[in-house]
Amino acid sequence: MNMCNMHTLVNRIEGVNKYMHNTHKNFNVEELHDALLTIVGTFNRPQRDELMIKESGIQLDRALFPLLVQIGRFGPIGIVELADRVGRDYTTVSRQVAKLEETGLAQRQKNPKDRRINEAAITLAGKGMTEKIDTARAQIYSGIFQQWCEDDCIVLTRLLQKFVVDFTAKEQGRNDETMNPPA
């Protein structure tokens, strides 16, 4: 019988302090946190951006790469929020967005609801570049998930989306159960 890895339950008891306990959950939070730190660390490596630039066949300053990707995914996005997302100083990000604007990949605009907020939006040229990046990412992920069963990929995506909703809600000081996607 071929069972998907995520559907296989493995229980190990290594110490009470490492586990989250309540009536329904018993898992090692440290293992989850270590996995998340590894993912975040991998995504934040400059070599990862260089690989994506190379695989995409684009010409872009590596320092501008994460900004273009974030603007493409979440834009129009406020410069302050963009700086927060990439872990850089607001003034640095503002200068880098100006470089993206000079190259025709992004444009600055005022938020229509709050004119005090400066936003970055993707241009058609920027969208063309992010589409090349998306294609390269899909090829890389395809290789990673080649040995995974389809159900594992679907469950991983669903659970990560659920985690993001709950985690960001908690981070923003709210924990509204109606925000959670169905399990």
UniProtKB/TrEMBL annotation:
- UniProt KW keywords: DNA-binding, Plasmid, Transcription, Transcription regulation
> Does the record bear DNA-binding in its keywords?
yes
GO MF term list: DNA binding; DNA-binding transcription factor activity
Q: What Pfam families does this protein map onto?
A: MarR
The UniProt entry, under SUPFAM superfamilies, shows: Winged helix' DNA-binding domain
Name the source's superkingdom. Answer: Bacteria
User: Residue limits of the HTH marR-type domain?
Assistant: 29-165
What name has this protein been given in UniProt? MarR family transcriptional regulator
